[in-house]
Amino acid sequence: MSACAFVTGAAGFIGAFLSARLVREGWEVVGLDNVNSYYDPGIKEERLWMLREADAEGRFTFVRGDLADAALIERLFAENSFDVVVNLAAQAGVRYSIENPRAYVESNLVGFFNVLEACRHHPVGHLVYASSSSVYGGNEKVPFSEEDRVDSPVSLYAATKKSDELMAHAYSKLYSIPATGLRFFTVYGPMGRPDMAYFKFADTLRAGGTIKIYNMGDCRRDFTYVDDIVEGVVRVMANPPEVREGADGLPTAAHRVYNIGNSDPVQLLDFVGTLQRVLVEEGVLPEGYDFGAHRELVPMQPGDVPVTYADTSALERDLGYRPQTKLEDGLREFARWYRGYRGPQ
Questions:
Q1: Lowest mean pLDDT segment, chosen from 80-84, 119-123, 126-130, 301-305
Q2: Mean pLDDT score of the chain, rounded to an integer?
Q3: I need a surface site. Which of 187, 221, 311, 327 has the fewest CB within 10 A?
Q4: Strand 28-33 relative to strand 126-130: parallel, antiparallel, unpaired?
Q5: Edge-to-edge order in the sheet of strand 84-87
């Protein structure tokens, strides 16, 4: 009998690529997503189409619903015997959390609580959940290590992700739930989120507008290609932490956290230069496009941080894996997909 995974956020960027890989590898997958309009639902529908194309054996079941619906989550767990749960559903975006904080409480806190409660009452072999590099906040020590203190979030989004880690640790300790949190670092690639910088830059340049480069260009980001993220998730899924007995005779928390990043932060101006070049080379923008006339250096925005930089030594030590896709290669794959999706300028 095939192993069964529950993937929340299955129409999301990482969730769709993960679900497609799992069904190709023989997993039964139940995917949940509310397909909301935080960004263009058309891209989410395209990801679901991609998933159906990958699902030659009919192993994927899609449920359109909300993670905050406790009755729905309980029903799905009661009706299925999930071996692994991968919680990727979340209200994403740092700046949006300043404008719409309630959405983050509902999805990232209440929704994740519903998953934890379901795992408590319907035991699973492994709960894997998305955290974020944003938990490191304004930490000045780089690269960011899982051993660093993360008590100073600079956005509500970051605070909810740190809260998820704490809740998962508590439930793991109390109910012996093997759980692993994954701190993702700036994920990019084809079919990505339109609210991410590389996608917004492409849209703006294609429309002849002016892109805004924050902190006067003095930002560095650890860009991580989506396939590398999926590979990391799959390896983590297969390696749950062991439930052990503590000195007090009670189980210890079978909970751990890993960074998944490229460990190669890129200066934002260099990133923009590479993106612009591949957009021209792949026919999204015309030869001779005047990039200098279409960009503006602006101050840092609230909730942003100047640098993200992953220390992935724990992931390498425990699972023998480190993301390696070069930025230019990943951006080229994005540009090729983007040209088919949006068309040339």
A1: 301-305
A2: 94
A3: 311
A4: unpaired
A5: 60-64, 28-33, 4-8, 84-87, 126-130, 179-184, 255-260
Tell me if 124 sits within 8 A of 84, measured CB to CB.
yes
Q: Which ranges of the chain does DSSP label H, i.e. alpha helix?
A: 13-24, 41-54, 70-79, 94-99, 101-104, 112-121, 156-175, 197-206, 226-237, 268-281, 313-319, 327-342
Active-site positions read 157
Determine contact, residues 97/157, Cβ cutoff 8 Å: yes
pTM (predicted TM-score): 0.95
* CB-based contact 273:57 (threshold 8 Å): no
Tokens of 228: 């590398």
* Collapsed DSSP state (helix, strand, coil) of residue 343: coil
Among 215, 193, 233, residue whose Cα is nearest residue 93: 193
Residue 161 confidence (pLDDT) above 90: yes
Q: What is the pLDDT of residues 36-48, one digit of tens each?
A: 989 999 999 999 9
Domain limits of the chain? 4-188+223-263+309-324
Distance CA 84, CA 79 (A): 15
Q: Is the dihedral of CA 127, 160, 40, 329 positive or negative?
A: negative
Q: Could you please state the CATH topology (level 3) that the domain comprising 4-188+223-263+309-324 is classified under.
A: Rossmann fold (3.40.50)
Residue type for position 336: R
Report the 3 state secondary structure along 117-186: HHHHHCCCCEEEEECCHHHHCCCCCCCECCCCCCCCCCCHHHHHHHHHHHHHHHHHHHHCCCEEEEEECC
Checking 2-5 for CB contacts under 8 A at 24+ apart, the result is 2/26, 2/27, 2/28, 2/59, 3/27, 3/28, 3/83, 3/84, 4/28, 4/29, 4/30, 4/80, 4/81, 4/82, 4/83, 4/84, 5/29, 5/30, 5/82, 5/83, 5/84, 5/85, 5/86, 5/237
Cα(11)–Cα(42) distance, integer angstroms? 10
- Where do we find the tokens 């795992």? 119
Paired tokens of 289:
């496009």
